[in-house]
Amino acid sequence: MPYADADLFEYLLRLGDTDVVMAQRLGEWIGHGPILEEDIALANVGLDLLGQGRLWLQYAGEVETRFRSNGRTEDQLAFLRDGSGFRNLLLAEQPNGDFAQTTARQFYFDAWHVRLLRALSSSVDQRIAEIAAKAVKEATYHAERSIAWVLRLGDGTDESHARMQHALDALWMYTGEMFAADPLEETLVAARVAVDVRLLREPWLAAIRNVLDEATLTLPQGEWMQGAGMRGGKQGLHTEHLGHLLTEMQFLQRAYPGAVW
Amino acid sequence: MSKEWPLWEIFIRSQHGLAHKHVGSLHAPDAEMAIKNARDVYTRRNEGVSIWAARSADIVASSPNAAESLFEPSNDKVYRHPTFFPMPDEVKNL
């Protein structure tokens, strides 16, 4: 099944941008964590995701050189693209909010991420398979951590329960996009390069439901999903939050082009 | 009731065959989170293969005031130290 390098490039941006944007959000917690230990832990998860994002964007840059005379480096892709060029999931760019909101975002994401990476590790694209196999170990730990926090906040005090439930409800509408495939992904799925994310929804939902049950929390019921109708982050249509995130993330390279350590 | 999370003492085994070694302490709400926090705080640079966590409150310590009676009597009993045997180079970590 033939596919264009440009399609593969787009797909790699989706993977890489989601990691990088999520990492930037987690990095915002540094110095603001509820306790020192959690501050370090959030930064660790962020750094793991940044490392994975780099691998995806490096590969994306290499693929880009195959069909464009001046393919970009990972840094150019991360720091010199405008918001509309980003292909991350809407969930990733949502603000940190309180600790419960960060936890809910991570919980929804990790449960998806670990399943995605597991499936990607048998991609026929060798490079994708290798990156995914490496990343899935980190993602497994992230998922354990976010589950542990959902259980503790949900089954904790009245306040932690209320905040956790509120956060889960508020972010629910951004979960649908994780399981929405567009024609670009369908092409790559047919070529067994990409994962059919639609197949991940049931296992994801079952896992989420189990945790929420144990945490005495309620599974949100909303049906309408932001960005799931092929008009979301993966297509470059973002919420207002991404631009603000990028102004901070890209400041240095924008203000001092080409600056290096 | 204190709102502070309890303190945990963290022990890490750096490689198989060695004993767990005390590396420091941290706060965590319960045992599982203590292990997770220890992973993030103390094993970021590939320091370990195993983690133990124990509530600091459960550690029984000798009193600094008892140091004289506890330890000084052994100071002059040099024959208790096996320092007169040559050690083969192959034996590591002894």
Strand content of chain B: 15-25%
Strand content of chain A: under 5%
- The run of helices and strands of chain A is HHHHHHHHHHH
Largest sheet of chain A: none
Structure notes:
The complex is a heterodimer of chains A (261) and B (94). With 261 residues, chain A is an all-alpha fold. Chain A has a single domain (5-255), classed as Up-down Bundle (Ferritin). Chain A has helices at residues 5-27, 36-67, 74-79, 90-93, 99-120, 126-154, 158-171, 183-190, 201-214, 241-249, 251-255. In chain A, helix 5 packs antiparallel against helix 9 and helix 6 (126-154) runs antiparallel to helix 7 (158-171). The longest helix of chain A is centred in the N-terminal third of the chain and has 32 residues, at 36-67. The model of chain A has no long low-confidence stretch (mean pLDDT 96). Chain B is of the alpha+beta class and 94 residues long. Chain B has one domain (7-80): Ubiquitin-like (UB roll), CATH 3.10.20.520. Helix content of chain B is 18%, strand content 21%. Chain B has two helices and three strands, in the order E-E-H-E-H. Chain B has helices at 31-42, 67-71, and strands at residues 7-13, 21-27, 50-55. A three-stranded antiparallel β-sheet of chain B has the order 2-1-3, with helices on one face. Chain B is flat. The A-B interface holds A 35-38, 40-41, 44, 141, 144-145, 148, 152 and B 5, 26-30, 32-33, 36-37, 39-41, 44.
